[in-house]
Design a protein that fits this description.
The complex is a heterodimer. Chain A is α/β, with parallel strands linked by helices. Chain A folds into two domains: 150 residues, Rossmann fold (3-Layer(aba) Sandwich); 72 residues, Helicase, Ruva Protein, domain 3. Chain A is globular. Helix content of chain A is 40%, strand content 26%. Chain B has 15 helices and no strands. The longest helix of chain B has 28 residues. Chain B is globular. Classes of the chains: A alpha/beta, B mainly alpha. Chains A and B meet through α1 and α3 of A and α2 and α6 of B.
Chain lengths: 260, 303
């Protein structure tokens, strides 16, 4: 069964030349009779489908549209055109640890965050001990989150997210969170999800992790799909392309450098 | 309509945000929730001092006027001020997960409503101690509060959406609220404005006012906040009776005051104005919601 279906998804952003954050700037820009922005396509005609139980990686250079794609799948962003159909409970692991209120306790934040991700109060209460256990910060749950270290916040955020019992996990650059121990633990948790037949959609620059976790990968560049094949193939080709690009950069630099 | 169902589906998020707002507002303050009541009381104290003691204002029953005026006014102004910044403040949540964005202004309305309830309970206790008759007509504050809340939601949604794109909106709203405060019958009874005549205008502002006085009075009477505030007065002070009341003063003997009151009540029959204000509130809520929905999809891109 296809659980994610993206058809001809386009997302246009306006990149302001000078960002108008006040009425005055907007009026001035209008009076000058120019658009104060450049238009660019963060996603350009992206079409793919994901079957239930598939683990799929999204790779590509910075600014290629990976996070935008995830945002559209999570319904945080709206596609300019094209359609996205997602079947099942989606758990977005975006911006981990954000949305925690610094003045509230860890416990209060767990309930707030879980409700945001779609858990009811009762469901959260049932999972609460397990969430705290997984984050390994049980002795700090009554303290306000502003007293937490960065790692603790991210661990708690990850822990809440993986306790959603989602059908589909959307993961944005969170494979490498926390210390070495927590990294192993979170990676194993994702492997366990996979074993349970959940669908994983992973955005990462950590190509080895993508290869270890996913059997299929999509390579995005400037909003377009370059390749959509097995993870091993895509990653090998992507690495070759990056190497070739770096070589040409170095050559261009050598050519332009003044001969001494 | 679909948005309404979505909000229902995400009501736990709404409830959690309301609880968070309540908890966070008085965090790190020693008196905590007591500020829900102390805030209006202190405002009332300031204005009482200014008018009664500095200016020797002769409005009878001024304290009652202030209490009944400030409860709905502070609810209204605090809600609008809170929610004007809500989209920018909650950007972390907006970028993190999907939820119907209307929850944000809605949570501002609900948390301030809860503050109002707390303040109101204490006012009732004070009334009982002072020997004011606490009666069934007090229930009229429920429709009065609903009227103000619906109106506040509409303005909030509209302003929250705009301020996500233009930071100026917040400063403009902050200052306009100061003006609106004086244009709402908080410090004076509604009859003061309805009875106002300008015979000899001495500057251009007064000339403009004189030219448009009847229309301005109509607008004043159709402002849901005016009707809401006077609804509170009717409920708490006048046993649910008509709130156009002209009190006798040293300059205005009782017989004359009564005659003026009868004339004003004839000129401004309440029912059409109450229905009119309700229509204004509902229309504002609908327009505000439409504007908010049109902008909501772009919020995450503004962070």
């Amino acid at each position: 069964m296809t659980v994610i279906e993206a058809r001809h998804v386009c997302k246009q952003y306006r990149r302001p030349r000078v960002r108008a954050t006040s009425v005055k700037e907007a009026v001035l820009a209008l009076l000058r009779g120019r658009r104060g922005y450049d238009e660019f396509w963060a996603l350009n005609d992206v079409t793919f489908g994901v079957e239930r139980g598939e683990a799929i990686g999204l790779v590509g250079p910075n600014g290629s549209g990976k996070s935008t794609m995830l945002g559209v799948l999570a319904r945080v962003l709206k596609a300019t055109s094209g359609t996205v159909a997602v079947r099942g409970r989606v758990c977005p692991l975006l911006e981990l640890g954000t949305g925690f209120h610094p003045d509230l306790s860890g416990r209060e934040n767990v309930f707030l965050n879980a409700s945001l991700l779609g858990l009811s109060h009762r469901e959260t209460a049932a999972r609460y001990d397990s969430i705290v256990d997984f984050a390994e910060i049980s002795e700090f749950m009554a303290a306000p989150v502003k007293t937490y270290s960065t790692g603790m916040v991210i661990r708690l955020g990850f822990s809440v997210a993986v306790h959603m019992e989602p059908d589909i996990l959307l993961i944005d650059e969170v494979l490498g969170v926390g210390d070495e121990h927590f990294r192993h633990k979170s990676f194993n948790r994702l492997l366990q999800f996979k074993a349970e037949g959940k669908t994983l959609f992973v955005v990462s620059h950590d190509l080895d992790s993508v290869k270890a976790l996913c059997e299929r990968a999509i390579w995005l560049d400037r909003g377009r799909i370059i390749k959509d094949e097995s993870a091993a193939d895509v990653i090998a080709k992507y690495r070759l392309a990056v190497e070739a690009w770096e070589r040409s950069l170095a050559e261009a630099k050598a050519r332009n450098a003044p001969a001494l | 309509m679909t948005e309404f169902l979505e909000v229902l589906r995400y009501r736990e998020v709404l409830w959690n945000l309301v609880r968070r707002n309540l908890k966070v507002r008085y965090k790190n303050s020693v008196l905590g929730f007591a500020w829900s009541l102390l805030n209006p009381l202190m405002q009332i104290g300031v204005w009482y001092f200014v008018f009664k003691i500095l200016f020797q204002h002769d409005e009878p029953n001024f304290m009652a006027l202030l209490i009944t005026g400030f409860l709905p006014w502070l609810f209204f102004s605090q809600t609008v001020l809170d929610s004007t910044g809500c989209v920018t403040q909650e950007m972390a949540l907006i970028k993190k997960a999907y939820f119907p964005r209307s929850i944000l202004p809605l949570s501002a309305v609900l948390s301030n409503l809860i503050h109002l309830v707390f303040a109101f309970i204490v006012v009732i206790v004070l009334f009982a101690i002072w020997g004011v008759d606490v009666n069934i007509h007090f229930l009229w504050i429920i429709p009065a509060t609903a009227l103000v809340a619906i109106y506040a939601y509409g303005l909030s949604a509209m302003l929250a959406a705009w301020s996500a794109f233009y930071a100026d909106v917040r400063f403009i709203v902050g200052n306009l609220m100061g003006l609106w405060f004086f244009l709402t019958p908080v410090l004076y009874p509604v009859s003061l404005v309805l009875n106002k005549q300008i015979e000899k205008p001495s500057n251009w502002v007064e000339r403009v006012l004189q030219d448009h006085l009847p229309v301005l009075k109509q607008i004043f009477m159709l402002d849901p906040v005016t009707i809401g505030v006077e609804g509170y007065r009717s409920a708490l002070l006048h046993g649910g009776e008509n709130f156009i009341i002209v009190a006798a003063t040293p300059e205005l003997p009782a017989a004359q005051a009564a005659a003026v009151q009868v004339a004003l009540r004839q000129e401004y029959p309440l029912l059409p104005y109450i229905l009119g204000a309700a229509a204004v509130a509902v229309a504002t809520a609908i327009i505000g919601q439409i504007i908010f929905r049109l902008k909501a999809d772009l919020f995450a891109e503004r962070g």
